[in-house]
Amino acid sequence: MRGYESNNCRLCEKTFCCENCRVKHETIVHKIFPNCDICVYGQFTFGNLDDHSLKHLEDCHLPLHCVYWKHQ
Fold it and tell me: Residue limits of the C2H2-type domain (predicted)?
């Protein structure tokens, strides 16, 4: 079934009628920003971020810490 996976919550795997309902569920129930990799997956890779995503990153996740760089 095409588009089925985009209808599933990425945190609790409930199925919704459409992607918009899934996004609303993730935002309200799980209190995450659905476009944020840190909120959803716990990790982040730099890419093309819009202003809204950058503001969310600044407000909720800074300072970021690199998992590969260790201070000795």
Answer: 9-30
Own/partner contacts of 8-14, CB < 8 Å, gap of 24 or more, are 10/40, 10/41, 11/40
DSSP string, 40-52: HHS--------HH
Structural domain spans, the chain: 1-31, 35-72
Give the confidence band of 3 by pLDDT, cuts at 50, 70, 90. Answer: very low
Distance of alpha carbon 17 from alpha carbon 40, whole angstroms: 20
What is the structure's pLDDT at 1?
39
The pTM for the full model equals: 0.66
Cis bond upstream, residue 63 (ω within 30)? yes
Residue-wise pLDDT tens digits, 45-63: 777 778 888 888 888 888 8
DSSP assigned state of 56: H
